[in-house]
Design goal:
Helix content: 25-40%
Protein name: Formate dehydrogenase subunit alpha
Family: In the C-terminal section; belongs to the prokaryotic molybdopterin-containing oxidoreductase family.
Organism: Ruegeria spongiae
EC number: 1.17.1.9
Strand content: 15-25%
Keywords: 4Fe-4S, Iron, Iron-sulfur, Metal-binding, Oxidoreductase, Repeat
Radius of gyration: 24 Å
Distance between the termini: 50 Å
Bound molecules: iron/sulfur cluster
């Protein structure tokens, strides 16, 4: 009803990587409600988070003034936001920025690598670009990372290795043109709900859906094949499916010969992975493996979608290598209805990675080890060279703090005190820092360890571009003004950089975007002015081209334009269940709560629907333990223990437990294992040996 609001602003949802376009309806500088609009990814649809998860921005916990820790106040207490002034004193912006810069530059004077940075996948492309530039230009090294390390780093490493590009090869909307699709290691009905609506429509028109997951995820209801494999057994299951495709002569020989390399090695490797041999390992009967493999291989067009069930393993890169090989051997890349699509998590994790917020790559995945690449950037930055060594990743940075090699951090919009694996280890690292600057909208668990807190803007309060899972670059617009003295993140970054002695003169994000284009060919033909009017998918081949929904139809950005088959062997999870820890813990998200919960637990509708920390267990397991649904259980791993309400869920195997990581009172990452995939350096969030007891 138009009487309900006095103006509307079109922008992008701040939560998941689907990147739904929405319209904020505003009255008296408050968002009254939200409607979906016709963006390329969502076509007017929104999920419960996009529709109802907006009032966190006016929550009384918002940080409204810069804060400096009071002399002698201990770090790391979980400060009640209402009690913030006992621990911190309010400061002017000048005072806080001076204190932040002094702490960081004093450490820099000793050694540049003393300071590391975590940027944010929740901020704009321009803010991500500025953040990595500050660390590289200001401190001379590449110790800069963000939550992609905990999300799809292993998928990106496999994609870069084998198809030459870390982004999706086709938009998820291409499923409209597919006959078969594999959805594996993800739960799109809860985590990418609007994308899931396209998947459901695909099945209604007869598309064959192959859902593979250790949990009986919601998409399974729509599946032609439902493969509930054992946690961590991805490689055995996928190799068995590929074995079937080879043995039954279902490969696309023409495609393999025309567009790929290393096929002979791959084919020889697969010979050992028969469904009969793999069935006891992955828990799927040979006939079921054969039937699913046949439907995917014989489809005219097939797509593969995956999530963190694939990526968050010590063999995460191998899991993605298998998926890439599976698509290639069937010729399911580069045509309508085909493609490889790792569903991105945060609203701008694709864009932040593209913008170089990673320790091994500058913007557009240009290697920091390449002298020519670095000099192209320092020419634009009008500054001296920085290190040619790849920087440390998220978990490695925490280890380096414990080792005394990193003494200061600048953390923008990330919450490692909740999101890191073995989080007590990460919290102890944060407490050990000599100087920590946190820039955020709330007093997050991480901000509890800060020396200086810089109050930032929520997504609905700022201008900037974001890039969704589909490679669609879209414009975010400010709907309301930030509370109190909170500022847009790019402004804070610029002011801090100036105090660190950098020659930054930006006065608007559009100037940053213009600079990004100088060394990012992915943004060719995409201008700020264009984005003000429309979303553009990269690559865009001309100023009129809306962008390429499907790429690599005529070859890959690799030597000889060929994609590569990289065989993967079975690697056991880092730790196995035993008599002391007999269950397998799987962590993840649930529909209503987003990541570490800082936003959604302050959105009253979402928090009312899911107000309490919970874990999901098979009803038979609960009965065996004498625990009724709704009662508390204690989960204990080799790293720690949490108490949480148990929920009966037939979708969980009897020897598994699922725990969302949004709840500070039962922080899942107290339990998780920090063992890393050697390529993507992503931790094994999806497999920990755990003991369960009645609490
Ligand atoms: Fe927002 Fe993702 Fe939901 Fe779309 S699907 S409304 S982007 S959370």
């Amino acid at each position: 009803d138009s009487k309900d609001y006095d103006r509307e602003v079109k922008s992008i949802c701040p939560f998941c990587g689907v990147g739904c376009q929405l319209s904020y309806k505003i009255k008296d500088n408050r968002i009254k409600y939200v409607d979906g609009i016709n963006g390329p990814a969502n076509e007017n649809r929104l999920c419960v988070k996009g529709r109802f998860g907006f009032d966190y921005i006016s929550h009384p916990h918002r940080l409204t003034k810069p804060l400096i820790r009071k002399e002698g106040m201990p770090k790391g207490l979980n400060v009640d936001p209402a009690d913030v002034h006992t621990h911190f004193r309010e400061a002017t912006w000048d005072e806080a920025l001076d204190a932040a810069a002094k702490g960081l530059s004093d450490l820099r004077a000793e050694k540049g690598t003393n300071v590391a940075g975590f940027g944010s996948a929740k901020c704009s492309n321009e803010e991500a670009y500025l953040f990595q530039k500050m660390i590289r230009q200001g401190f001379g090294h590449n110790n800069v990372d963000h939550c992609t390390r905990l999300c799809h780093a292993s998928s990106v490493s496999a994609l870069l290795e084998n198809v030459g590009s870390g982004a999706v090869t086709a938009t998820f909307n291409e499923i409209e043109n597919a006959d078969a699709a594999i959805v594996i290691g993800c739960n799109p009905i809860e985590n990418h709900p609007v994308a899931a609506t396209y998947f459901k429509q695909f099945t209604k028109r007869g598309g064959k859906l192959i859902v593979c997951d250790p949990r009986g995820v919601g998409m399974g209801k729509f599946a032609t094949h439902r493969l509930l494999f054992k946690p961590g057994a991805d490689v055995s299951m996928l190799n068995a499916m590929m074995n079937v495709i080879v043995e039954e002569g279902l490969c696309d020989r023409q495609y393999i010969e025309g567009y790929t390399e290393n096929w002979d090695e791959m084919k020889a490797h697969l010979a050992d992975y028969t469904p009969e041999k793999m069935a006891p390992i992955c828990g799927i009967e040979p006939d079921a493996l054969r039937a699913a493999a046949r439907d995917f291989a014989t489809a005219r067009a097939g797509m593969i979608f995956w999530g963190m069930g694939i990526s968050q393993h010590i063999h995460g890169t191998d899991n993605s290598r298998c998926l890439i090989s599976l698509a290639l051997m069937c010729g399911h890349v580069g045509r309508p209805g085909t493609g490889l699509h790792p569903l991105r998590g945060q609203n701008n994790v694709q864009g932040a990675s593209d913008a170089g917020l990673i320790p091994m790559f500058l913007p557009d995945y240009q290697s920091v080890t390449d002298d020519g690449v670095r000099s192209a950037f320092t020419d634009v930055w009008n500054s001296g060279d920085f290190s040619n060594e790849k920087g440390l990743t998220v978990v490695e940075i925490m280890d380096a703090i414990h080792a005394g090699d990193i003494k200061g951090m600048y953390i923008l919009g990330e919450n490692p005190a909740m999101s890191d694996p073995d989080v007590d280890h990460a919290r102890a690292a944060l407490a050990k820092l000599d100087h920590l600057v946190v820039q955020d909208i709330f007093l997050t668990e991480t901000a509890n360890y800060a020396d200086v807190i810089l109050p930032a803007s929520a997504w609905a309060e700022k201008t900037g571009t974001v890039t969704n899972t589909n490679r669609q670059v879209q414009m975010g617009r400010p709907a309301v003004t930030p509370p109190g003295e909170a500022k847009e993140d790019w402004w804070i970054e610029v002011e801090l950089a100036k105090r660190l002695g950098l020659n930054w003169t930006y006065s608007h994000p559009s100037e940053v975007f213009a600079e990004m284009k100088l060394n990012m060919s992915s943004l060719d033909n995409i201008t700020w002015e264009r984005l003000e009017g429309e979303a553009v998918t990269y690559p865009s081949l001309s100023p009129e081209d809306p962008g390429q929904a499907i790429v690599f139809g005529d070859g890959f950005p690799r030597p000889n334009r060929r994609a590569r088959f990289t065989p993967a062997k079975i690697i056991e999870p880092d730790e196995r269940p035993d008599a002391e820890y007999p269950f397998v813990l799987i962590t993840g998200r649930q529909l209503e709560h987003w990541h570490t919960g800082s936003m959604t637990r302050r959105s009253h509708v979402l928090d009312a629907v899911e107000p309490e920390a919970n874990c999901s267990m098979n009803p038979r397991t609960l009965r065996r333990m004498g625990v009724a649904p709704g009662e508390m259980v204690r989960l204990t791993t080799r790293r720690g223990s949490v108490e949480v309400m148990a929920r009966a869920d037939r979708a969980i195997a009897e020897d598994n437990v699922f725990l969302p990581f949004a709840y500070v009172e039962a922080a899942a990452n107290i339990l998780t294992n920090s063992a890393l995939d050697p390529y993507g350096k992503i931790p094994e969030f999806k497999y920990s040996a755990v003991r369960i007891e009645a609490a």
